[in-house]
Amino acid sequence: MFPLASLESFVSFVVKSLPNEQGSHLENTITSHPKEDVFMKKTICVIGVGYVGLVTGACLADLGNGVICLNRNQEKCDNLKKGILPIYEPGLEEIVHRNQAAGRLSFTTSYDEAMQDAEFVFIAVGTPSGTEGEADLAHVNAAAIDVAKRIHQPIIIINKSTVPIGTGDWVADIVRENMPDPSIPFWVVSNPEFLREGSAVHDSMHPDRIVLGSTSREAAERVAELYYPLQAETIITDLRTAEMIKYASNAFLATKISFINEIANICEALGADVKTVAYGMGTDKRIAPSFLGAGIGWGGSCFPKDVKALAFMAATHGQHPQLLRAVLEINYDQRKRVVTKLRDILGGFRGKTIGVLGLAFKPNTDDMRDAPSISIIRLLQNEGAIVKAYDPVAMSIARRILTDVEYCTDPYAVAQDADAIILVTEWNEFKQLDMKRIKSLMRQPVLIDGRNIYDPARMRELGFTYRGMGRGYNGEGTC
Ligand SMILES: NC(=O)c1ccc[n+]([C@@H]2O[C@H](COP(=O)([O-])OP(=O)(O)OC[C@H]3O[C@@H](n4cnc5c(N)ncnc54)[C@H](O)[C@@H]3O)[C@@H](O)[C@H]2O)c1
Predict the structure, then answer these.
(1) Which backbone phi and psi does 260 adopt, to 5 degrees?
(2) How far is CA 80 from CA 25, 216, 250, in A?
(3) Domain range for residue 117?
């Protein structure tokens, strides 16, 4: 799709950690700006007010900058001006309100207004999957053109969206072709985002690292200045390497989960307990414990589309991304596996009422994009099941996607007259349920624990027909 990188990679670790007396190490890292400039308020425009754009805008405002967030949807923008957020993200409302009140954060639908004084423009629009798995760059293209048309002073354009390798160069070409005065200097910097939905504000304020890629080291360093108060390690590289760091990171995390899910399935066949296996593996520092939770697998707005996009890029450049394809296949098989487990117990779903606990793709978010709950519920319904469901925050979005589901007010209403329950999302509130009461409400006490949050022995003691994911033999009594 894009020509191969012509630039030499250069990587440097600009900031390991800053001392509390701000600025005292900066002479070593900032070559082209006086150190007092580092802590001056910057004027920033953020395009897109989704999980990344709104969090980025709010956090940069909280660091003292003047931020204007642009969104084309008038209703969303009007709501934001009133302090009503378009997404659920813990802690975000508070930080948005605080910075709005302080006059550091504002919202607009007008590119003219947003670009008026901007020194930095962050592009944080969606890059969903195209029909063949490629990243659809229509929103990035539109944003780049709209930005270009309003460039009237030197500006740094920062790609925060996850974009295919080569997009930074492509955005630079779009800007060059569309700016009214091509003599005005501009720079493109890739600044991939690593936040996790559900802890996005915390992750943005305490990043493991900041990655910045550019053809201009000076531009990358100017963006690094925005993040200095966070005291995070900053890695400066060329554009394509920065873009690849994001894809490789997501693909690796997805691989870890698919790996443990494959191990879980083998555990199930051989009578081992994957939770203990994962613990035993994770204590090895070379492996580390995170992303080793076996279960239904990953979903959401990032892993599925990013793994597909990386595989697509590899294939279109003559590579054979066999590991990435296996990672995707294992993941989608896990969703079917949950349904198979339940079918084996109930003998079929026609006329059966199945309760689903959790709809969001993971806890602490209302994001339903590629949520495993959607595939699982559709598989059940295709075989004649009646589905009831509950999620603490995602039900209003789920209602638009899954129209023929009975939405319940709490987990106990889900259990009422259910022939089985499938735990799909591991919200904390599901970990502390009164399971005796749940059982007493059900028509048949069948529990499929898609995230391994319950103790198998305890559930069986309570009288449930319990199945976890990879927790020993499928037969009763072994785990
Ligand atoms: N959600 C995450 O956890 C996460 C984490 C890291 C990276 N990312 C990446 O960040 C990017 C954004 O993800 P998101 O989850 O925030 O998406 P989102 O769908 O929640 O938000 C995208 C926003 O962009 C707006 N938009 C689209 N085109 C626009 C245009 N031309 N002008 C102005 N606004 C426009 C949309 O209205 C929306 O507000 C994606 O590339 C994604 O892969 C997401």
Answers:
(1) -70, -30
(2) 38, 35, 30
(3) 12-241
pLDDT (0 to 100) of residue 472:
85
d(CA 55, CA 40): 21
Number of domains in the chain: 2
Q: Do 309 and 228 belong to one domain? A: no
267 and 218 share one domain? no
443 C-alpha vs ligand 1 centroid, how far in Å?
Answer: 43
Neighbours of 136 (CB within 10 A): 15
For the question of residue 69 being annotated catalytic, the response is no
Count the Cβ atoms, other than its own, within 10 Å of residue 475: 8
CATH number of residue 75's parent domain: 3.40.50.720
Residue that has been written with the tokens 């591991």 in this structure? 426
CB 41 within 8 A of CB 117: no
Which atom of ligand 1 is least distant from the CA of 54?
16
Residue-wise pLDDT for 7-56, tens only, equals 333 334 344 333 333 333 333 343 344 455 666 789 999 999 999 999 99
H/E element holding 200?
Answer: helix 200-205
- Cα–Cα nearest to 151, from 106, 118, 110, 191: 118
Pocket test for ligand 1, best of 69, 125, 158, 366 (most atoms within 8 A of CB): 125
Taking only the tens place, the pLDDT of each residue in 75-106 is 999 999 999 999 999 999 999 999 999 999 99
Question: How far, in Å, is the centroid of ligand 1 from the Cα of 85?
Answer: 15
Cβ–ligand 1 contact at 193 (below 6 Å): yes
